[in-house]
Amino acid sequence: MANPLQEQLLKAGLASKKQAKKAEHEKRISRKQHNGNPPAVASNVAREEQAAKDLRNRELNLQRAEETRLREQKAQVKQLIETNRLAQDGRGEPYHFAEQNKIKRIFVSEEMGDQLSRGQLAIVKLGTGYEVVPAKVAHQIASRDKEAVVVFHEKP
After folding, report:
1. Taking each helix axis from N to C terminus, what angle separates 4-12 and 17-33, rounded to the nearest 10 degrees?
2. For residues 20 and 6, is the Cβ–Cβ distance under 8 A?
3. Were both Cys, which of 15, 88, 102, 107 would link to 9 (CB 3.0–4.6 Å)?
4. What span, in angstroms and rounded, lies between the C-alpha atoms of 36 and 41?
5. What's the rounded Cα separation, in Å, for the pair 145 and 80?
6. Using one digit for the tens of pLDDT, what is the confidence trace for 69-82?
């Protein structure tokens, strides 16, 4: 026998050869069933792996949900601008404004220029161009995407 404790128990008469063989057999069977890993360790490893996988899945789902929310907001902004934009006057007076340290201009009628300066209209960015929208729509756009509103002289 390879186990010194079993040998001592047998010599002392506290265990019989039959009991020793039975214990060795049960030990060998349990090792075969668990491939050498104790059952508690194998289940703990599996639980830890599953918990890590669940955490990764939750993080990915949150990231996807955030990306979807941002796409929806951009689509809403685009739709608001396209449905509420006012016609620009190509032969009107130029209205100059600053965006990212550059002076830009759009051509609007004289009345629209006055309304822009009084805060009744706003200039918003749509793609690479600029559109003029009413103040109410500019508030809605700003609540979804502050970057889209370029010029808005709202009253305090």
Report:
1. 160
2. yes
3. 15
4. 10
5. 12
6. 999 999 999 999 99
How far apart, in whole angstroms, are the C-alpha atoms of residue 138 and residue 152? 8
Q: What is the pLDDT of residue 70?
A: 92
pLDDT value at residue 36: 53
Whole-angstrom distance, CA of residue 143 vs CA of residue 126: 16
Model confidence over 5-53: pLDDT tens digits? 778 777 887 788 888 888 888 888 887 776 655 556 668 888 889 999 9
What string of H, E and C letters represents the secondary structure of the chain? CCCHHHHHHHHHCCCCHHHHHHHHHHHHHHHHHCCCCCHHHHHHHHHHHHHHHHHHHHHHHHHHHHHHHHHHHHHHHHHHHHHHCECCCCCCEEEEEEECCEEEEEEECHHHHHHHHHCCEEEEEECCEEEEEEHHHHHHHHHHCHHHEEECCCCC
Q: What is d(CA 130, CA 139) in angstroms, rounded to the nearest whole number?
A: 16
Looking at residue 83, its pLDDT comes to 92
